Every structure is written in structure tokens, then in C-alpha cells.
Task: structure prediction
Amino acid sequence: MSSCKKAAIICTKKQYQEATLWERIQFIFHINICKACKVFSKKNGQLSTLCHQANLKSLPPEEKERLKECLKNEIKSNTLTPK
Amino acid sequence: MTKHILHPDNWVDNHSDYLFNYAIARVSDVDIAKDLVQDTFFAGLKSAQNYKGEAAERTWLIAILKRKIIDHYRKINSKKAQATVRITPKTDSDFDNNFLEHQVADPLSLLENSAMENEELGVAIHECISKLPKKHALAFSLKTIQGLSTEEVCKELKINPSNLWVIIHRARTSLMECLNNNWFKI
Result:
């Protein structure tokens, strides 16, 4: 039965609060009978906590595009005027 | 020893998030961090011919960024008057608090440690993310770091939701493994 695979996906959805009620019910039933998935679920939760704790930041996509443009122009002007 | 080669075209994709996190942990201002990352890329381009290929591209860029951060602090502290340590006296009339000795940091406090640990944790996570396959890394960072909704990420990557969840699941599994080896047991 591919139930464990299904449970793992639901578990991942749960990390983003996007599992439906029915999925959550299925998940609770599953981790009651499957130890491996229970352990996995715990680890997955810890990963979420860590990511939250680290306060990860990233550049917004539009900023990246702008940077790319800037770099491209800079590369061009550098190759046009070699020292 | 393998020679490393610079690929300036891929700098933004490969290193900008890592550099940005590194900078933001040290200057704690989004706009300044953005500028520092940009300056770093430009300085990197300018001195690309000095790159000997001994260090990895990212290490080299981080070394530049470090100099840029130091320069930034020099610049904002260039006025002599600002270099003095200022202590804001506590306004409460409590007599005991008037002594400077009462205002030193609590030696038993662990607050500073946790800030440092979190910073290192952020670096460790980013390193692990950059080891993921490109599509997995992108999906994970869009969903987790930028907090986009599922539809937005799907549109961006042109995949359907069930595919996205499988990708994120795989990304998370390899992240767990990587952090297990590099950070601590989770």
C-alpha cells in the first residue's frame, strides 16, 4: 500500500497549514499505526521550527532581476574596455 | 587541487540569497544588505582577473562581502563623535541603578548565544539548500522562505500542485538529511 507515501505528502502539506480536514484525519489514523511515519512527522516539524527560527530571508524576485540586468551591463562594459 | 572558475552570469541565481542572508545578519537592514550584495557582485567583476581559482566561487564572494560590510561600518562611524560609547541613563529613580556596574550585561544570559546560533543555523540551511537540485531548491525557497501560496509557486514553476508537493517533500527530506550531518541531530 502506498499509504506511507501519501502520509508523507500530507505531512509536508501540514507544515504549510495546507492539508484539508479529510487529509488530516487520514494522517492521524496513519501515524497511529505506522511508527516510521510518526518519526518522520516529528522530524518534519522540527525542520519547520528550525527554518522559522533561522529567520531565513531571500531577495525578492524583482530585485534579483534588477541585479541580473545590472551585472549583465557591467559585464558588457567590462569586455568592451579591457585593461 | 581543482581549479575553480568564475561564472558571473550565474552569481545572482546561485549566491545572492546566501550573500543576502550573510549581510542581513550583520547589518540588520534590508536595503543596506541589498546594496552590499550588489556592491559585492560589482567588486567581484572588477577584480575577476585577480581570482586565482584557489577558493570556491562562493568563498571568494563572501570574502569580498566581508570587506564591504567592514567598509560600511567604517563609513557610518567616520565621525569621531559617534565613536564614543553612549550609555542612556535609566530614568527610574531607583538608587541602585545609578551605578554603571549595575548596567553591565548579565554574564549568565544566553540570549546573545541564541542570536549567534540562529545566524549560523541560517547559513547552514542555505548551504544545504544550495546542494539541492535546482528545481527543488527553487520550489522550497519560494514556498518556505518567501511564503508564496501554492498557486503562485505552481504558476512560477509551471507544474501542478501534486507535483509541487512531491518536489517539496523530496527537498525537505534531503534538507533533513543534510542538516543532520552538518548541524545537529534532528
Residues 35-54 of chain A form the longest helix (20 residues). The two ends of chain A are 66 Å apart (CA to CA).
